[in-house]
Amino acid sequence: MRRLIATMKIALLALRRNKLRTLLTMLGMIIGVAAVIAMVGIGNGAKTQIENQIASLGENVIQIFSGSFTRGGVHSGWGAAGTLTVDDAEAIQREIPGVTAVSPEVRSTTQIAAGNQNWATQIQGESADYLTIRQWSLTAGAMFTEQDVRSANKVAIIGQTIADQLFPGEDPIGQILRIKSAPFFIVGLLKSKGMSMMGSDQDDVVIVPYTSAMKRLFGMTTLRTINAQTATSSLLTPVQQQINSLMRQRHRIVPGRDDDFTVRTQQEIADMATEQSKTMTYLLAAIAAVSLLVGGIGIMNIMLVSVTERTREIGIRMAVGARGHDILLQFLTEALTLSIIGGLIGIAAGMGASKIIEAVKHWPVATPYIWILASFLVSAAVGIFFGFYPARKASQLDPIDALRYE
Question: CA-CA distance, 74 to 81, in Å (whole number)?
Answer without folding.
Answer: 13
